[in-house]
Amino acid sequence: MEISVGQWILIAVLILVPLLYEWSATFKYFCKMAFYNGWILLLAVLAIPICAVRGRNVENMKILRFMLLHIKYLYGIKIEVRGWENFSLKEPYVVVSNHQSELDLLGMMEILPNRCVPIAKRELMYAGTAGLACWLAGVIFINRKKTDDAISVMSEAAQTMLREDVRVWVFPEGTRNHDGSMLPFKRGAFHLAVQAQVPIIPIVMSSYKDFYNKKDRRFTTGKCTVRILPKVDTRGLGSDEVPELTESVRKMMLATFLELSGEPSQSRDACSQ
Ligand SMILES: CCCCCCCCCCCCCCC(=O)SCCNC(=O)CCNC(=O)[C@H](O)C(C)(C)COP(=O)(O)OP(=O)(O)OC[C@H]1O[C@@H](n2cnc3c(N)ncnc32)[C@H](O)[C@@H]1OP(=O)(O)O
Ligand SMILES: CCCCCCCC/C=C\CCCCCCCC(=O)OC[C@@H](O)COP(=O)(O)O
Fold first, then answer.
1. Whether 44 contacts 129, CB under 8 Å
2. How crowded is residue 252: how many other Cβ atoms within 10 Å of its Cβ?
3. What pTM did the predictor assign?
4. What is the position in ligand 1's atom list of the atom closest to the CA of 109?
5. pLDDT at 134 (0 to 100)
6. How far apart are CA 256 and CA 2, in angstroms?
7. Ligand 2 touching residue 176 (CB < 6 A)
8. Tell me: the pLDDT tens digits for 23-74?
9. Which of 102, 116, 141, 186 to mutate to test the pocket of ligand 2 (most atoms within 8 A of CB)?
10. How many whole angstroms from 97 Cα to the centroid of ligand 1?
């Protein structure tokens, strides 16, 4: 039997890819990240027709959550959740959490409360099938390049939360932070909570440093602890108190992050570097 050039190439790829995957941590990192994004885009293809039946609706977030929950098993990431009791509020609230990487999606889906939608950068809306799935699930998109637009979308969100009994999840660092600390917090989430006069629930995901590092191109299996902290009340607070509120919540989250990540306190504050 004669083997064609194409078949030789296929055989070489089938042999080389697994070898490279085993030998090179960098190659493994890129494969795992590519699969992560590709898999989510593919899952979104399945999610879209199911979500479309209801139209744009925050209840669709349950479908996305259900479809994404298994990914932690594919990647061998164990997620331990502490503080479930702090999620037992009936009323709307604003969740704020630290943002290390796109892998935060795993911790987020592990604990995402009912009727809770994230605030995301507008660019995500154009991320193909994932963008459409997010839109159908009621994800709130903001244009970070236009502060006034972002603020008005968030002010509208304050009204929607109360009118439609919706919870909102915000990453107050405003961008992914891969350096194992916490960036200074933007104030949008805190203005939102004060405008709606709803509590804030801080969430801390421990450092991924033992299993994931974007700079070193390292991605192995590992464990992440997600801690749900007690609610912070905003009743009676006005916009003048937002800066202090922001700082006190960040301080509490940073202390928890360092504790969960096994780091000495005070050593890793991105604000004091
Ligand atoms: C099958 C599967 C399919 C796929 C499923 C996937 C589903 C999951 C999707 C998850 C997506 C998660 C994506 C995460 C992200 O995209 S994070 C990035 C976007 N989020 C944020 O940026 C939120 C945090 N940012 C803020 O809060 C900012 O403050 C912002 C509102 C965006 C404005 O930012 P910026 O332009 O940089 O301005 P400042 O922060 O400097 O603010 C300027 C002044 O305005 C005041 N301010 C801010 N917000 C408000 C407000 N709402 N009301 C009134 N005033 C406000 C702020 O305090 C500043 O004034 P002072 O300096 O304090 O005087
Ligand atoms: C909690 C993370 C949610 C990730 C959901 C990604 C699912 C999309 C899958 C494939 C589409 C590829 C587009 C990748 C988009 C990554 C989303 C993300 O993590 O947004 C980061 C955003 O916060 C802050 O953006 P920057 O760190 O400022 O750039």
1. yes
2. 15
3. 0.93
4. 8
5. 98
6. 64
7. yes
8. 899 999 999 999 999 999 999 999 999 999 999 999 999 999 999 999 999 9
9. 102
10. 12
Closest Cα partner for 263 from 181, 178, 179, 171? 181
CA of residue 143 to ligand 1 center, whole Å: 9
Q: Is the CB of 61 under 6 A from ligand 1?
A: no
Quote the ligand 1 centre to 186 CA distance (angstroms): 7
Do 265 and 258 touch, CB atoms closer than 8 A?
yes
pLDDT, tens digit (0-9, with 9 covering 90-100), for 77-115 = 999 999 999 999 999 999 999 999 999 999 999 999 999
Q: What is the edge-to-edge ordering of all strands in the sheet holding 222-228?
A: 77-82, 222-228, 200-205, 94-97, 167-170, 116-121, 140-142
Q: What is the pLDDT of residues 140-187, one digit of tens each?
A: 999 999 999 999 999 999 999 999 999 999 999 999 998 878 999 999
Task: Confirm or reject: Cβ of 103 under 6 Å from ligand 1.
Answer: no
Q: How far is the centre of ligand 2, averaged over its atoms, from the C-alpha of 218 (Å)?
A: 19
Ligand 2 center from residue 143 Cα (angstroms): 14
Domains and CATH numbers, the chain: 5-260 (3.40.1130)
Tokens of 45: 């293809």
Is residue 123 a contact partner of residue 141, using CB atoms and an 8 Å limit? no
Q: Provide the phi-psi class of 130: left if phi over 0, else alpha when psi is between -120 and 50, else beta.
A: alpha
CA angle (71 as vertex; 65, 77 as ends), nearest 5: 120
**Contact by Cβ (8 Å): 43, 130:** no
* ipTM of the prediction: 0.93
Residue nearest to ligand 2 atom 28, measured at CA: 175
